[in-house]
Queue: 2 jobs
Job 1
Amino acid sequence: MNQEWLALMIGNSRLHWGYFQGENLRHTWDTSHLKEVINPIRLPNDYLFFDISSTLPLVVGSVISSQTKLWKNYQKFYFIKLEDISLNNLYPTIGIDRALATLGAGERYHFPCLVIDGGTALTLTGIDSDRTFIGGAILPGLKLQFDSLSSQTAALPNINLPNKLGDRWANNTKNAIISGILYTILSGIQRFIDDWLNKYPESKIILTGGDAENLYNYFQQDNYEQLSNLIVDQNLIFWGMRSLYILQL
């Protein structure tokens, strides 16, 4: 159970890595998409590296087929397909990252659960106590909303994601954009959470993805009454990958 292995989630904008010893996740890091397979695979602090000819298992989930192909010749390559994921009623085109994160949330925090993934796309995914997919929603992620507003208009500036919500009733363009995007997103997510908890009051609500901490902080600043029900866990996808791979050890 101490076997070393690597998890790789190929996301829309980055590669997400996890280094495991058996069931224990020892280290995570992100890299940019690759043009060719790197050799060796190196952790950011350089205390450990893996050669491409190594026998170390590599477990891969992917939403980008061109990036997946780079790893097909790896000696111990395990590719996760949607049908491998032990959840009921998943529709054929649901993202593998979304399915893995939901599986990981349920395995770690129990079913039912609601997963809010603040990545390039912001997704909400609900699973009941029978591990059955109930449904969810997809919308542009926080950064994508800020970027698209500036890129598609002539006079509106590009704004970095702020640390603070600011005033709801803004009196300048920059703050009006911040208010419009953030308060609208938060209000929408809150309605989903409230509706979900009405149906499944014992459910956990787990935030994950690159903007999970930002979302939690915004909820906190907005004095959201369900704040105590929110959990931030950036490693849901890795917990999902672990639950699938560990069966083979």
Note: The chain has two domains: 4-79, 110-234.
Job 2
Amino acid sequence: MKKNTFKLFTSSLLVSAFALTTACSSDDNKNSEPVNPVTEGRWITVAGAVMQTDPGDGNGGTKVYAISKENAIDPNFSVNVYDQGVPVQSSRTARLQSSVDGSTLFNITYTGANGGEFMTYKVNGGNNFAQSDAKVNISQYAGTSPRWVKLFDGDKTGVAVNVATPIVNVNEDKSYKNTRGKATVLSLDMKQTLISAYKQYDIPLTAEEEAQGHHIFRLDAPTLNKAGNKLIIGTWMRKTNTADPSKNESTFTRLGSKSVVVDYPSLENPVVITSKVGFGDTSGYRSFNSFVATDGNIYQATQRDTQKGSYILKINQNNQYDDNYVFSLDTALGIKGSYIDAWRYVGNGIAYAVYTFEGTNQGYVARLDLNARTAQKVEGIDYDADLDFGQYQGFVVDGNSFYIAVTPVGKDGNIYVIDIPSGKVTKGAKLINKPGNHYIGVF
């Protein structure tokens, strides 16, 4: 009996230990599962903007160079995109996009003789970028300087948007009526290299808002909703001085943040939605500015609100702003006048933003928790007074890794790789700079 009892007790311990080990292993496996897809052998394309006349203006063109993920995370590896890289077609700073697996760069030439021309580059490593023979020019519809991003639809579609120079309209008695510019929304089939649809229309505000001089100056950063049937397009707002319509007001009482919603893929039926939480613009500048998160809702950053700083706004799956969701970056970081230059959703409610704030022109990096509505400045990065993310465009998200290029204007910097679940920061490859230049992203 005693022996049997011991045997039973021992067996129970073994079973319990096995169950505990299995549970721990299962949890470990669960925790180690990548937040995002992993692309083995993925290239990391580094992009640098060349100075034209003033340090940091980036108007002298863009050069690119591709390295491996292993090199990107190696602090002993150095990259000099200005000596080693090759230019992409663009008279000024290129607006680049990349495929999820990093194998292809997408580009629409910004200004110049080829402004509005879409082409792709096959990324073969180093300075080997094979430009596609197939091209399509969208300038006759969206101008030579279109704003555009790709949709998160498997790298199938890009959407370009434009607002023609707004025109002041008057009533019969010559009194001020409104200011409007003809808007264009155009979709590109990036696989077939052709225009798949485009629409042009006026996008009116309310009669009261227009009578006060408010108007949409620019559209940018379109995002496809989870259902795949609507595009949410960010706006940059301005206000005409109604007493002297030849001028815009430099400061004015801002309306709530606005976006334009259009049907997809038809691009028809533009409708303006307005947030009562945020009052900044929702257009971003040179990169994505809103994302469909894991919960299926869209999260959108605001800019140019000098009073309240940047907010993260929430657009529900009914394509309306959720004014119960309040996420102020000023409040979360304990600063004033925050300004999100660019940001990227990385999965599981986490995002990273590059920002500045009142009293400084220096850029910083923050980790955002969209669910908790909290933010923390990322430590472990070499910050510098000349660090400027104003033209920043490209982040890479691969598995549990988030890649970002950090270089002050005219000074060397590094690629940093951040572990998405833990937030751990690793200092990676050195980025060799030149006077007046700066790195604007990794793709």
Note: The first strand starts at residue 43 and ends at 49.
